[in-house]
């Protein structure tokens, strides 16, 4: 969409005398998506859940091309030779990306073929248009006439009819026709409207489907009477869909409203075509859709694998995960549902999705209805289309409370929805603030100010994930509630920073980026280095989505060489190279990919004793260890000081993540990932299943002590395996 090149998370290039210290960020992401695809092959998952993983891998790679690859192509077109941390130019990265992406797409199609056969064995069939019998053809023809014919609009392609605009992720079919009356050739294009479901389910007890493009090809004679079809092929495009904020933007809201419209017409990045499309039609598409610049892919399988999510909705509970209903936190129930009384008594941690996100909504709803609440402050990064959080803020404003909402317009692909929410909030009287022009407000913070006994008390919520009720059912995240006045003062200072650009003085407990979060993290690692030098136990445990920042990686290498034991749980991108003698032999990296998406950010530092221990320093955060989180986003890093919460986060969440053997992968020093296998004599352990079947974190806390010794021994056993 943007003509001028944009940097891709600028990172300093490594010194030329120290090659091979980092994995490439983009190739690491493709490796993550391959792990997602591997779950589509996992026989431990029900069949439709395997199909869901395949559709997720398809959607993931679409977004990867629309954003990451688009940025690299933009740099290459402008002759930018900026090198990534691993020393590659944009052109070199693109060459590697294309090769690996092609291999990944081939694997996706192979998995789809395997799943097609397995689904057919369970009575779920995707029919080829050439295999439609006469009885079914009669029904489909009627369906085509009544449901599709009025919607479809064929367009001739000739000098009088220029090639039409194809929307992003748009699926189309191009036809080469011959008029039967005089043999005159004509070329036609039919865009399949995105509002039409990709699959048509045909009548009968069996779940039989046919694709929309298959129906169109099969009954093209009804759309083109008097013509013979010589060739027909489906194709699909992906466009540059990132929005670059220009420094000269004066009105942020107006800028994003126009930028969203421009994004829909972004440069074509990827062109996907059916195999066997024919050289003539292929050349037409390349010429009309910028094929000289776009990355081309031919596939003999299914275009747009993300659309397979529709088949996952088939009513076959026997082929899906057993439904799981999250628990409402026991601690809140103990106080008769009074969130404020429960938080006032003691800090609370809630583990989503095992414990319901409804507790966050209830916190805000009670604040809206409570006559003693005078103010609410809330950040909104991704809130979803059906946001109970926004509705609660509107209700509070309509009840006469002072409500401030920091709405982040720069949340990628949620910009349009966030604009709509901002308008609705403003109409209700909420003070809406959009934060910094050049930074994203990524911190997830809510503050409720309540009048109590002639004074004011602040109740705070900090989340490692978004205020999004849908993703909260499938993302593993932590919600932390506290009435600690120190944290309340820090939270107020953060809001003043975002809303009024009032840079806070020394915060009491929190660290924030882009001010001091990276430095705080570095200092904590330095303490572990000093402890190792003093002969004390020294270790770092950290859980996050991505690890990219070169400065932090170099500090971890330094710590490893100093004798610090480092265990990292990095779900997605990891640019650190573990297990290299003399550089990172004490660093182990694993990735957990399973039923739920691991999303929480938790960091623990041994502090002179063997982890886990009561004196360890434990933090939760909204930030990953990436340059953008440290330098271009407002993030928080919060110490967990309450003893019970400390033990719950460290001894349950972190230990369970480290000892999981059923859905974990070890990162090797060559960049490959291998499934984790149980240490000899150790039983399989599935961390998602563990938290679905064990008492919640927000319980009284007594249950945790009974479980602590065995996981400690298991973590030590895993460490002996090490990274190879």
From TrEMBL:
Keywords: ATP-binding, Kinase, Magnesium, Metal-binding, Nucleotide-binding, Phosphoprotein, Transferase
EC number, as in UniProt: 2.7.4.1
InterPro entries xref list: PP_kinase, PP_kinase_C_1, PP_kinase_middle, PP_kinase_middle_dom_sf, PPK_C_dom2, PPK_N_dom, PPK_N_dom_sf
Pfam families given in the database record: PP_kinase, PP_kinase_C, PP_kinase_C_1, PP_kinase_N
EC top class, as a word: transferase
Biased composition (Basic residues): 705-724
Region (Disordered): 699-724
Free-text description of this protein's post-translational modifications in UniProt: An intermediate of this reaction is the autophosphorylated ppk in which a phosphate is covalently linked to a histidine residue through a N-P bond.
Record-annotated Polyphosphate kinase middle domain positions: 138-309
Domain (Polyphosphate kinase N-terminal): residue spans on this chain: 22-126
Residue stretches making up the Polyphosphate kinase C-terminal domain: 339-503, 510-683
Binding site for Mg(2+): 382, 412
Catalytic activity, as annotated: [phosphate](n) + ATP = [phosphate](n+1) + ADP
Signal peptide: none
Binding, ATP: 60, 475, 571, 599
Keyword set includes Magnesium: yes
Active site, per annotation: 442
Kinase is among the record's keywords: yes
Cofactor: Mg(2+)
GO molecular function: polyphosphate kinase activity
Similarity comment text for this entry: Belongs to the polyphosphate kinase 1 (PPK1) family.
Entry function: Catalyzes the reversible transfer of the terminal phosphate of ATP to form a long-chain polyphosphate (polyP).
Protein name in the entry: Polyphosphate kinase
Encoding gene (name): ppk
């Amino acid at each position: 969409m943007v003509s001028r090149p944009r940097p891709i998370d600028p990172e300093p290039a490594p010194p030329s005398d120290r090659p091979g210290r980092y994995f490439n960020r983009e190739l690491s992401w493709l490796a993550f998506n391959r792990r997602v695809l591997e779950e589509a092959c996992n026989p431990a998952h029900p069949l439709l859940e395997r199909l869901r993983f395949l559709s997720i891998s398809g959607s993931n790679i679409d977004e990867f091309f629309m954003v990451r690859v688009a940025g690299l192509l933009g740099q290459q077109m402008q002759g930018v030779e900026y090198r990534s941390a691993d020393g590659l130019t944009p052109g070199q990265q693109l060459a590697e990306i294309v090769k690996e992406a092609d291999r990944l797409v081939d694997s996706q199609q192979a998995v789809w073929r395997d799943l097609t056969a397995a689904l057919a064995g369970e009575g779920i069939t995707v029919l080829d248009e050439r295999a439609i019998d006469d009885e079914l053809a009669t029904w489909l023809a009627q369906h085509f006439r009544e449901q599709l014919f009025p919607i479809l609009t064929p367009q001739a392609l000739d000098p009088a009819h220029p090639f039409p605009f194809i929307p992003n992720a748009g699926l189309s079919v191009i036809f080469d026709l011959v008029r039967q009356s005089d043999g005159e050739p004509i070329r036609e294009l039919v865009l399949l409207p995105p509002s039409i479901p990709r699959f048509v389910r045909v009548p009968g007890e069996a779940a039989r489907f046919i694709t929309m493009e298959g129906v169109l090809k099969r009954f093209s004679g009804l759309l083109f009477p008097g013509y013979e079809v010589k060739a027909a092929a489906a194709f699909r495009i992906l466009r540059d869909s990132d929005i670059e904020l220009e420094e000269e933007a004066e009105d942020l809201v107006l800028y994003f409203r126009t930028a969203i419209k421009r994004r829909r017409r972004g440069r074509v990045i990827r062109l996907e075509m059916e195999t066997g499309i024919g050289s003539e039609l292929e050349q037409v598409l390349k010429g009309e859709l910028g094929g000289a610049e776009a990355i081309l892919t031919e596939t003999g399988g299914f275009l747009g694998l993300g659309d397979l999510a529709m088949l996952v909705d088939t009513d076959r509970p026997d082929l899906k995960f057993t439904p799981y209903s999250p628990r409402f936190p026991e601690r809140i129930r103990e106080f008769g549902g009074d969130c404020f009384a429960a938080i006032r008594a003691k800090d609370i941690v809630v583990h989503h999705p095992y414990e319901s996100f409804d507790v966050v909504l209830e916190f805000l709803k009670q604040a809206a209805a409570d006559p003693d609440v005078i103010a609410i402050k809330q950040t909104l990064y991704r809130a979803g289309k059906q946001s109970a959080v926004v509705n609660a803020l509107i209700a509070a404003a309509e009840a006469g409370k002072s409500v401030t909402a920091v709405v982040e317009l720069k949340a990628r692909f949620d910009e349009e929805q966030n604009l709509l929410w901002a308008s609705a909030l403003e109409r209700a009287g909420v003070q809406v603030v959009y934060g910094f022009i050049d930074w994203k407000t990524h911190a997830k913070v809510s503050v409720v100010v309540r009048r109590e006994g002639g004074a004011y008390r602040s109740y705070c919520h900090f989340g490692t994930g978004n205020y999004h009720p849908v993703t909260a059912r499938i993302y593993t995240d932590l919600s932390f509630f506290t009435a600690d006045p120190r944290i309340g003062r820090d939270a107020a200072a953060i809001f003043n920073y975002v809303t009024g650009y009032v840079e806070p003085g020394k915060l009491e407990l929190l660290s924030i980026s882009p001010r001091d979060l990276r430095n705080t993290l570095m200092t904590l690692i330095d303490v572990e280095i000093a402890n190792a030098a003093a002969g004390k136990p020294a270790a770092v445990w950290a859980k996050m989505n991505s690890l990219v920042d070169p400065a932090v990686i170099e500090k971890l290498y330094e710590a490893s060489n100093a004798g610090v034991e480092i265990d990292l749980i990095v779900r997605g991108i990891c640019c650190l190279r573990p297990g290299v003698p003399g550089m990172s032999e004490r660093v182990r990296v694993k990735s957990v990919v399973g039923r739920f998406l691991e999303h929480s950010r938790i960091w623990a530092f041994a502090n002179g004793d063997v982890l886990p221990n009561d004196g360890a320093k434990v933090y939760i955060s909204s930030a990953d260890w990436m340059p953008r989180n440290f330098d271009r986003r407002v993030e928080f890093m919060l110490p967990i000081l309450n003893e019970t919460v400390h033990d719950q986060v460290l001894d349950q969440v972190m230990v369970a993540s480290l000892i999981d053997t059923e859905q974990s992968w070890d990162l090797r020093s060559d960049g490959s990932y291998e499934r984790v296998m149980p240490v000899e004599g150790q039983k399989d352990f599935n961390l998602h299943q563990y938290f679905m079947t064990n008492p919640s974190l927000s319980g009284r806390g007594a249950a945790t002590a009974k479980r602590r010794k065995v996981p400690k021994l298991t973590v030590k056993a895993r460490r002996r395996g090490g990274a190879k």
